[in-house]
Protein 1
Amino acid sequence: MCAVVLAMAAADARATQPPGVVIAEGWRRGRPVRIELVNVGRAWLEKRAAKRFLAMRDAAAADGIELGIRSGFRTFEQQRWLYRLWREGWGSKAARPGHSNHQLGRAADIYLDQGVFAWLRVNARRFGFRRTVASEPWHWETR
């Protein structure tokens, strides 16, 4: 998400939201929905997903594993761009704009190495995360 848009949304939300929560327009089944986002390192996640991810990150750290998010929430425009690139033969498969769980802030593309992937395969479900795209071992989602 563009830093300027997030800064503006954060300023608008300060009066009514807990610190760090930003109201944004997400998308579910092609329709816009209001979601609450929280910054998690270098990405934004929906508030409940962020809480789950942070608990999972802490548990992984206790086991000597470092979890980091490469991509979280995406705006409609960002998803449209990724979808267009994929249709033109570039990049990874991307859902149609308005139909990606990234646009709900519930999907996280996690930095992977063999240790991280092995840890996630064993432990991610305890925190409500599951791998939903067989061809993308880095893509994990929560409901």
Protein 2
Amino acid sequence: MRDLLVPLLRLPALEPHLAALRPHGIVVRRSRSYEMSQTRRFVSRFFTEQWADETLIAFSRAPISCHIATHERKIIGFAVADVTARGFFGPTGVDPAYRGKGLGTALLLAALYGLRELGYVYGIIGWAGPVSFYMKTVNATPIEASVPGIYSDLLDPDE
């Protein structure tokens, strides 16, 4: 999988995506320091230990570079930025029970706006999964010769 480049100065508006979630009691916001353990548990439960480790780095940033989606006082999604490498988006994920409601888009935009607030003009989506989604949603473009990129020496996850 290759990396994608995102022009952060041309992001679509975030507020309409947040507003569409509010009637369902879903809030997307920047995580708070005292939510680090809960966020790590959520990521470990639904995704991987490696993603949970990356997510912890977001809590060492100022401001915290983790955004979460919540419903009924529970985390149902997350997105981090500026953790794998400076200017990188991800990992990100949504509880399977809440997929298809626009949470992924809202979390993506919230995290990318966070990068923009830090002064970045371009963001990188590393080892992008749903490339067509990113291209359509945030005008991402593939970065040629970006494979394997920063992930060239990944450790065996079973070690």
